[in-house]
Amino acid sequence: MGLKLHNTLTRTKDDFVPIDPSNVRMYVCGPTVYDFAHIGNARPLIVFDVLFRLLRHLYGPEHVTYVRNITDVDDKINARALRDFGAEIASGALSLNDAIRRVTEATATQFHEDVAALGCLPPSVEPRATDFVTPRSDGRTDMITLIARLIERGHAYETAGEVLFDTASMPDYGRLSQRHLDEQQAGARVEVDAHKRNPGDFVLWKRSDADEPGWDSPWGRGRPGWHIECSAMSAAYLGEVFDIHGGGLDLIFPHHENEIAQSRCAHGTAVMANTWLHNGFLQVEGEKMSKSLGNFITIRDVLNDWPGEVVRLAMLKTHYRQPIDWTLRGLREASETLAKWRSRAILPGGIEFPEGVVEALKDDLNTPRAIAQIHGIAFHERKEATDRAVQERAEARMHGALTLLGLQSVLEEGWLQTKRRAASQVSEATVAAMVLARVAARKAKNFAEADRIRNELEAMDIVLKDAKDAETGELVTTWEVKR
Ligand code: AMP
Ligand code: ZN
């Protein structure tokens, strides 16, 4: 069987036929860098990493180009910079642009640490939006040129310092989300802006005040709307029409619909990408994740308590199009499964990609079926292996299967040791409370209790260091994880 993928454009599972098998091209919308990414954001990162791995397996690693952007211009970023560096900006110690750069650099670094810990391969290219606003010396597509072309072709208009996309100029606007313009207008509850020709028209370029980041353009100093970034960066690296475009379900409308409108109208093409993939949503312990409900979990929070591989497996146990309920129980089960998959008679030497696992993934990334196949290898092939050659083959197949899912690191010697603290599920708060209890015991001269706590922490691979504070002479205890 060839690769089949569920295409949001057709609402069916279609045969995947690349435009050019020597360069299979995929674009996935990346993060807006203003804060830690949450565990819902981890889902597209992991799902599309598995697809990237599968495409590399099927077409050869050098024949796949995966672009995932970083959105480093957004009003949420400006707000964060003002919140964190307001005083420095007000006193003139820091310019707004420098403050913004600090926010985006720090957040992008956190993001890179998170995705690496989740076992995701870096994409082939990771363009940053701010590098694609104005025309480039290398001639790659930029946003201002795209917007100018849309105006020229009658698909966009300038009004009140903004450039808006004219949705009525595109007969099949709404095809991806299957929302039709007349429906949208009839049912529109959005207040119609006086300067918009149609209620659904969206912003391509908006004016920046002096205290907002901006670039000079034919429409005055301003900044791009969100959707135009992805149209520019995908064209810059993948061309006017490419194979796969992905993201979470919530991006279908308006983001992807508007990307399609911009790209197709600017380039005069029938599609932007042939296949549109969308992952289902994640909720936490049965509830929608939100800051106000107090169940908002960052990837970093989860990685403090669990190895990235456990998070990854917990995510992949559900098919990417289904909703996921993120639970502690799911994490525990994934952790137990990995421990079982690790236990083996010999170290894996070679690598073999089991057909059952590859076939499951080729069937619209059926990871639950791939995982069932891996159980078969782990519990039957291994168990039934009577001689060394058969054992080695079982391990090589285990190695290949786990590599396809990006979980091969669990087979490495020492995996458990380096991840022990995480695997032991000790939270920083627990350790801090135990350290404080020990300090209190020592102050009360209850040395037996202090030693008991030290031993208990040691069993969890936490090493304590006692030192006297140079100034106050007080005992200060710090702790770290044994490596
Ligand atoms: P955002 O930062 O909101 O643009 O989201 C980045 C990516 O994460 C997009 O592909 C979203 O569709 C996806 N995403 C956001 N929240 C969730 C969630 N709760 N479950 C699954 N995917 C999500
Ligand atoms: Zn996008």
Task: Tell me about this structure.
By secondary structure, the chain is an alpha/beta fold. It has 3 domains: 18-282, 3-Layer(aba) Sandwich (Rossmann fold); 325-420, Four Helix Bundle (Hemerythrin (Met), subunit A); 426-481, no CATH class. Helix content is 45%, strand content 14%. It is built from 17 helices and 14 strands. Strands 4-3-9-10 form a 4-stranded parallel β-sheet, sandwiched between helices. A 4-stranded antiparallel β-sheet has the order 5-6-7-8. It has a two-stranded antiparallel ribbon with strand order 1-2. Helix 4 (143-152) packs across helix 7 and helix 16 packs antiparallel against helix 17 (447-459). The model has no long low-confidence stretch (mean pLDDT 91). The structure holds adenosine monophosphate and zinc ion. Residues 29, 31-32, 40-41, 43-44, 247-248, 250-251, 279, 281-282, 289 line the site of adenosine monophosphate.
